[in-house]
Amino acid sequence: xxxxxxxxxxxxxxxxxxxxxxxxxxxxxxxxxxxxxxxxxxxxxxxxxxxxxxxxxxxxxxxxxxxxxxxxxxxxxxxxxxxxxxxxxxxxxxxxxxxxxxxxxxxxxxxxxxxxxxxxxxxxxxxxxxxxxxxxxxxxxxxxxxxxxxxxxxxxxxxxxxxxxxxxxxxxxxxxxxxxxxxxxxxxxxxxxxxxxxxxxxxxxxxxxxxxxxxxxxxxxxxxxxxxxxxxxxxxxxxxxxxxxxxxxxxxxxxxxxxxxxxxxxxxxxxxxxxxxxxxxxxxxxxxxxxxxxxxxxxxxxxxxxxxxxxxxxxxxxxxxxxxxxxxxxxxxxxxxxxxxxxxxxxxxxxxxxxxxxxxxxxxxxxxxxxxx
Length: 373
What we know:
This protein is mainly alpha-helical. The chain folds into 2 domains: 3-235, Up-down Bundle (Rhopdopsin 7-helix transmembrane proteins); 250-372, Arc Repressor Mutant, subunit A, CATH 1.10.10. The protein is 71% helix and 0% strand. It contains 17 helices and no strands. It has helices at residues 3-27, 33-51, 63-70, 73-88, 103-117, 121-128, 135-169, 175-202, 208-235, 250-256, 264-277, 287-294, 298-308, 313-329, 339-345, 351-362, 366-372.
């Protein structure tokens, strides 16, 4: 099988799998409807983009239709960014103000109108002789690459803020969702880099065979990431549950707070409350829940923990959970307690997150700690 056949085969397979998964995303019942719809649209746009690698080999396509298909990419990265925001923030909604994200798509199509969309047969014949060196196509490539860099950076910024909000206000296992989403963003950044190299090769004096292989690698990468995403989604259908984007970080609360001194009284009350009431046993404990139980403002509690104790709320709560787990692991009255039973009892709901946290505090796995002690 030569690289042309391989490109067509993988292109058809990747397009089929992506379309199939898009249909699944649109039809599956989920609490995260907006996230599902946005990712479904992203997959549909991706399948249209990938079809360009093989459809011309089977169906005669006009130059104007090819350019219209190529301009579809202007919608791809904004939709992906919206998807990231919808997963990170539970209160994210599409609003009229988001319409400005259509500007690159509109400008890109306007640039194509004079010669590619509405040009005469003579004009089309002229530009088709050396399409990739026309100013419209060069502008399209440059603007799309700049747009991609912008939206991928914005996606990483959104992730970082959501992660900080989570660490300062929540203690559950949802942090794994942000790590997974970060991996997805990084995978698509890698794919973008591969596409960038492919386009550079297109404008370089390299053999056609090398350029064809770059196309094969690009399509195969998209196929791998899509399949990986499908497996993750099927195994973890309720993995994502975002935080409130209006939640303020501790540094913002400090800027608003005139009294920035130590909250000694709150910290003492907190330590006593944690030891006596053991709120950390609740897997979904948040700083708002804890503040309500202690009957103090959540902003003051947030400053006390995240600033004065110099710990994220996430780490603060997990420290109590790990100490309790260490007691249970060495409790001679309960020697038959399994590690799985212990992790659920102390407030964790995932073995991987429990092992990670336990090793962070003790440098040992729970099993190693039990044997050593």
